[in-house]
């Protein structure tokens, strides 16, 4: 594999040397102390806190140990998972995540990964943390000494618990005090005026609302406190159509919540305000997770699940030059690239020989599970990454901030019978958001002097796909009920015959 870096602002080309750093297994050395032996609680806290620094950004060009970081984080994570099997240690882990983690985009990823991987605790253990140790209630939410950093972490941990313990356990931990705490944080009763904190409270409320009892409690409490608050937050998305960052995130989440979770009587659904009949391609994910959120025009996507989600284009090409671009709404981990026939749709982009992608925070190109350092710069919110596929020359180019990196790979473009097809692909870490432009709108980062085609010119989307990804689930079910489908038709696609019945809901 060869990489070439170009400065697009200069006429002469500057070739940057491309290096692949070796990866060595991370080994844990024995702890040796001179005076005192740290307590088990202190060791657990240290590993939890240090994991955020390991997973955070680094300069791979100057950090000689950069390639060992994934293995170091995995070792720390395995340690935390192992000790969390004991309930008292689970309490220590949860407390460390809520109280000691700093304000940083990588804190979000760290908390999501750890909460996802550690064993599920007993309901009594969770209740002890929420009600006794942190005393979540209205009093805490409106306290004058409110620590925004800690409350953000608490809301994120609650979010993960609601997703992980969905069902009766979720209803058990969502007490009246916890509901009151989240609702008061969300409506800004304390006037903390932190939009990100409000958004994290809203996202936690969404997850808890998955059960009927919890949803009724939330709707009732919000109606008493401020019934218009969610609608007011939605205006952020309308007022800042050209702005990105946390204000856009809040507006996007508020609009999605009003469409999907907390509908407002008489409000027109966003899906009905957009004409998507001309949209013929998108990036889709087959997991069916409702918290992988699509805008009605299918261009803006947000991953509010605990898992990294890989999305693949519905448009496939075999020859020529093709371009698409991604606009960063958040600054967390996102891998953007291309995949080909045979790619594992459940793996991250770049984890096998059939896909490759650029991760802009770490400035790393991933291919076949191997990381490669490239000098393209670390992306920021509102920046646009352009991706050009040249099948004829067997090259892929990435464009960012006036620079271009060209990658040549005979393996990725190796001929097959029948000929392989190529399509755009991205992997989104938890709680990340971006805009995908496959040609539906004018490009912001298109390379000059290059004759390429837009993927939107060859894609095809069925009305069912547009409805499944762009329409709120409740509205989709109502519309499906009006279809003239046969009695034995599938409840989801309304096309093929039923061969499975889900219990206890009875959907077929």
From TrEMBL:
Coiled coil (UniProt feature): none
Q: Does the keyword Manganese apply?
A: no
Q: Note the SMART domains from the entry.
A: SPRY (SM00449)
Does the record bear Metal-binding in its keywords?
yes
What Pfam families does this protein's entry cite? SPRY
Q: Which UniProt keywords apply?
A: Metal-binding, Zinc, Zinc-finger
Q: What is this protein called?
A: RING finger and SPRY domain-containing protein 1
Organism annotation: Papilio machaon
């Amino acid at each position: 594999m060869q990489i070439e870096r170009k400065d697009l602002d200069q006429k002469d080309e500057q070739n940057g040397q491309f290096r692949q750093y070796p990866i060595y297994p991370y080994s844990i050395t024995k702890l040796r102390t001179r005076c005192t032996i740290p307590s088990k609680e202190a060791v657990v806290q240290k590993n939890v806190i240090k994991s955020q620094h390991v997973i955070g950004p680094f300069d791979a060009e100057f950090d000689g140990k950069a390639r060992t970081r994934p293995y170091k984080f995995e070792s720390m994570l395995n340690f935390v998972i192992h000790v969390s099997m004991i309930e008292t240690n689970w309490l220590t882990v949860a407390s460390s995540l809520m109280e000691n983690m700093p304000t940083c985009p990588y804190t979000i990823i760290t908390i999501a990964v750890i909460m996802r991987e550690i064993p599920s605790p007993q309901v009594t253990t969770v209740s002890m943390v929420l009600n006794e140790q942190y005393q979540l209630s209205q009093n805490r939410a409106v306290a004058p000494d409110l620590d925004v950093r800690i409350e953000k972490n608490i809301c994120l941990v609650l979010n993960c618990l609601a997703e992980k313990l969905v069902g009766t356990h979720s209803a058990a931990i969502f007490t009246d005090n916890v509901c009151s705490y989240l609702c008061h944080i969300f409506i800004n009763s304390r006037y903390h005026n932190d939009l990100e904190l409000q958004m994290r409270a809203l996202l936690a409320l969404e997850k808890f609302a998955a059960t009927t009892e919890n949803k009724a409690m939330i709707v009732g409490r919000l109606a008493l406190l401020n019934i218009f608050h969610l609608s007011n937050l939605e205006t952020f998305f309308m007022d800042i159509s050209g702005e990105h960052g946390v204000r856009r995130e809040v507006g996007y989440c508020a609009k999605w919540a009003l469409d999907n979770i907390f509908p407002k009587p008489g409000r027109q659904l966003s899906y009905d305000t957009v004409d998507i009949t001309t949209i013929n391609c998108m990036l889709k994910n087959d997991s069916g997770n409702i918290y992988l959120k699509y805008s009605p025009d299918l261009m803006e996507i947000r991953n509010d699940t605990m898992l990294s989600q890989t999305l693949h284009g519905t448009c496939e090409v075999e020859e020529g030059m093709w371009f698409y671009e991604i606009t960063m709404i958040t600054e967390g981990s996102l891998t953007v690239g291309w995949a080909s026939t045979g790619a594992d749709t459940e793996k991250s982009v770049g984890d096998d020989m059939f896909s490759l992608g650029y991760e802009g925070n770490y400035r790393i190109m991933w291919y076949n599970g191997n990381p490669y350092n490239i000098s393209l710069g670390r992306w920021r919110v509102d920046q646009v990454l352009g991706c050009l596929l040249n099948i004829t020359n067997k090259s892929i180019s990435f464009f960012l901030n006036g620079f271009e990196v060209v990658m040549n790979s005979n393996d990725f473009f190796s001929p097959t019978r029948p000929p392989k097809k190529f399509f755009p692909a991205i992997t989104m870490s938890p709680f990340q958001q971006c805009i995908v432009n496959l040609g539906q709108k004018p490009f912001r980062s298109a390379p000059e002097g290059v004759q390429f085609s837009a993927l939107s010119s060859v894609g095809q989307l069925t009305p069912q796909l547009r409805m499944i990804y762009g329409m709120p689930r409740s509205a989709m079910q109502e519309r499906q009920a009006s279809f003239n489908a046969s009695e034995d038709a599938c409840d989801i696609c309304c096309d093929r015959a039923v061969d499975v019945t889900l219990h206890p809901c009875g959907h077929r």
